[in-house]
Amino acid sequence: MSQPVEAFETKSDFAYRQVRDRILSGELGPGSVIQQRELASSIGISTTPLREALRRLKSEGLVELDAHRDARVSPLRAEEARDLLEIRRSLDPLAASLAAERRTNADLQAIRAAAAGLAPLRPRPSVEQLVAHRRFHAAIYTASHNDLLIGTLEALWDKADRYRLLALRTDPGQEARDQKAGEHDALVECVALGDGAGAAEIMRKHIDTSLGATAVWRLGHADAADGT
C-alpha cells in the first residue's frame, strides 16, 4: 500500500525515502533487481521521480544503474564492510571524546532521550528499531560540535545499516545484547561526566564488537569459502 507524500516533500524525495527504507530494512535485498514500474506503482508515483531517487541512491552506493537504466541493489562486499569498520574505529571514538568535552545541557538531554528509546537489536529489526539505534549515535555525534565529523559519520551510517542486518541473520544472544546495553549506558555516563578518554575507550570497544565487525568476519569467511 502506498503512503502519502508528506507536506512540502517532493515526489522524488518521497521516492528516495521509501526506496532507501526498503533497502536498509532488507525488503529490497542486496543484489536484487529493482523492477521500476512495479516499485513505482507500489509507492504510488510515476517512474520519473523514482529514477531521480535511484540516481541519488546510486551516489550513496546503495544502488547500481547501468546505461540501459536497469537498476539493482548494490551487493554486500567484504572490502566495503572492512573499510567501514576501519574508519568507524577511528572516528566514532573521536566523536565520543569530543562529545564528552563539548556537550551542552541540550545535547545531554537529547542523548538521554535517545538512550531511553533504545534497545539492543534483535534479528529482523524493524526500520523504526534501526532508526532508534541511529538516533542515539547521532546524538553523540551532534554533541561533538564538529560539522565535518558529524557529516562523515552520518554518511557512513547509511552504508553500514545493511551490514548490521547481515550480522543479525543469526541471533547474537542475550549476553551480547546485555553487553551492548551496558556500553550505551556507560557512554551516556562518560559524556555526562565530561570524561573524554573514557567515552572514547567505551566507543572503541563498542565498535570492535559491533554488528559491523561481525559482518566483516562473516563476509570474509564467505569469500574464503568461495575461493575469492
UniProtKB/TrEMBL annotation:
Transmembrane segments: none
Pfam family, one: FCD
Domain HTH gntR-type: from-to ranges: 9-76
Keyword terms, alphabetized: DNA-binding, Transcription, Transcription regulation
SMART domains found in the cross-reference section: FCD, HTH_GNTR
InterPro entries: GntR_C, TF_FadR/GntR_C, Tscrpt_reg_HTH_GntR, WH-like_DNA-bd_sf, WH_DNA-bd_sf
Domain of life: Bacteria
Protein name listed in UniProt: GntR family transcriptional regulator
